[in-house]
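[Solved] Which block belongs to which protein?

Original post:
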Amino acid sequence: MDVEEFDFQLTFDILELHRITTEGDGNKWNGAVYESSSDGKFNMEFIWDQDFQDEVERLAKD
């Protein structure tokens, strides 16, 4: 897989993860922190940032 295809696939995967995890108006998030280690373990924290959401909504109106 080349880099350009990887970027597109990663974006698609994040959007799909968001769609799945927020179904039914539960578990709202608009940011995430992903940590991985060399032993294959990972952790993902989902975050709701109201200031960010307010800015997105403000810019969408312009």
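(Second protein starts here: sequence line, then its structure tokens.)
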Amino acid sequence: MENNPNMEGIQVPGRPIREGIAGIAAEEETSGNVKERVPMLPALTADWVLFLLCWPFGALVSALRRLGMPGAKTVIFLFCLYFGFVFIYGDPYRDKTTDSARYAMQLIEMRAHPVSLPQLVSLLYKPKTDLLDVYQPLVTWLVSLFTGDPRFLFAVYAAIFGLFWAQNIWLIFTRIGPPAGLTILLFLGAFALINPVWNINGVRMWTAAQMYIYGVLLWFLDGKRSGLLWSSLSLLVHFSFAFPVVLFLMYLIVPDNLFLLLLFFLGSSLVKEIDLQSVRESLDYLPDIFKARLEGYTSENYARDLAKEVMEMPMYVQVSEWVAKAVVYLWVVALYFTHHHWDPGEPGLRRFFGFTLFLGGFVQIVSLIPSGPRFIIISHALFYVVFILVLARVPGKSSFSLIKNISVPLLLYYILYNVRMGFDFMGILTFLGNPLFAFLSSEQLPLIEFIKSLL
């Protein structure tokens, strides 16, 4: 892979400039030294394999406590594989509200009525079929060749999701080492849980998000041109990622002016309404297959339905959104006024911060369009990475003390909220089961329902 000449790797004091994982295959030294190949999924010792087979959740907890161990990301990946197998996807015959139940039904139907690969390809990007993405139909087709059991489908979904999830966590950890302080630890937890593995309920959007973030981190943290490729591949997983991919490309020619980027980010938050009619008119330039889908997303009826759903959301859900925004705004302002104190040998970090402001500003505008708010998750995840990296470099800076104290309870709330959301898609087997028990049981009782039954 080639190094990006416009970006420099971010160096952690006391660590090699490219210590840890470096993309798909190898770490590369800019000086031309011998390449040190680091596998994406390092091999595990026999005791770890046995631990995973006996108690996957226990192995995950143990690996997280030893996150610096190279095999930790392999354990995370394999736990995700297991998690997908015991994932609560709902009743495919009765549940009409969750995406996962619909994906399960598609597998069952494809198994009952097989199609060839050429037939499947002929259905892609056709207005009548509404198949705008390659990833989900292709994976479903591959699994249907062997089984119609949705558990295997979601195991594959979770494994692919977990592959990028583990890499993203690892890319950050290898640059900071063991978290020095509660605030960094909570930000790392918030990053991991802002788009967790149970988001395979909406597998297209959130797998694409992990791929996009992986590409962005490779570009800014490792200076790898392959990062642009990985981010662009997210288009094959969810067509809407044309939006953040275009912004990524645009940023390559944007001047490095943090003041203007901060003004843009803060100013975009003041925009409270967008003309949906104008948005729909702009869709006339798109191909019919994309135009039809986006017109549905921007229709007045769809907007009213979403607004009604927002009003009916439980208070703890609304509070979580306020908390997430408050944390981001607090730290964005703090980082801007202290960025002159960052190590001048780390221009990549400054440039990365600028990108998060650039992306975040556009995301705040697009969030006014129905279905647009989900891009906030991606924006916030990248902000968290910047916050973590800066805190790891200036842990004792007094100007951060007050904001740290404010952030701790907010981040705790946000983490607990996301774990609670996961209870809708986890069962007892997630925590206490193993592959053998999972294979013999088809339990589909969400953990939250089990807890309620005990009260």
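Accepted answer:
You had them paired correctly. Confirming on the second one: Residues 181-422 form one domain.
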